[in-house]
Design a protein that fits this description.
By secondary structure, this protein is an alpha+beta fold. The protein has one domain. The chain is built from two helices and four strands. It has a four-stranded antiparallel beta sheet, covered by helices on one side. A hairpin with a 7-residue loop joins strand 3 and strand 4. 15% of the residues are buried.
Length: 104
Amino acid sequence: MSRCRITVIQRTLNPELAEEYCTNRVSPCECFHEGQEFVCGLDKPEGFCDWAWRDIHPFIAVMLTGGNFSHGIFEGWMKDENTMIACCSDGIRPVVFRIERIGD
């Protein structure tokens, strides 16, 4: 059965939004670090942020059921049919993930 590798490729920060809307000093997300990897099936990996998992789980489900983001309605989007780039929905400090389908 296929699995997915999730790699943290970027932790970002929108300082202008943080300054305007947050009450405390804000830094990039502390739940993850660049280069961190998780391997999963349909279940959330141990130690993975619940909120980020909710955001990227639909992409995981597509990959694990044989779908992709480079053919059909997604023609011309991703170069590799086994890869998707997605992020969590934190508008102040989103984290960007590479999701790769691995194994069979």
